[in-house]
Amino acid sequence: MQLLRLSDQSISEVKSLFEAVLVTAEGALGTTGRRLMGLKAQVDVRDQLFDVLSDLTDDPRLADVIVVDCDGYGGLEAVQRALGRLCQDDRRAPVILISSECKEQVFPQRRSEPVCLRAPVSSVAMRVAMETTLQSKFPHVMS
Fold it and tell me: The pTM is what?
């Protein structure tokens, strides 16, 4: 078995299949961003949660998926409350919440409900989350 280690630069050279906004207090790509890029996402890293929520209010289709590292913003419950203030618009980009507080991973059937993943997120969990959130928009992307 041969292992291949990809750098951030080599990952970014792969053609993107979908757009993801990664909201993280670290303001850097990190492991979660690299996992997204490994799934062929074009990742826009942002560090201001409320700016992203405001942008989502203005444009529900800000990206194909929004991924939030909740631990840097007061935890899972605080981010869920902030998201709850947004209208439950099915046009809104699906949301994936990542938190060390997450006891059980959640993959809801309704697009308006966020996927919840345990931190640190594994590549398998991220792939399942992407398949769950993007299946209606891109049925061929994750096959």
Answer: 0.84
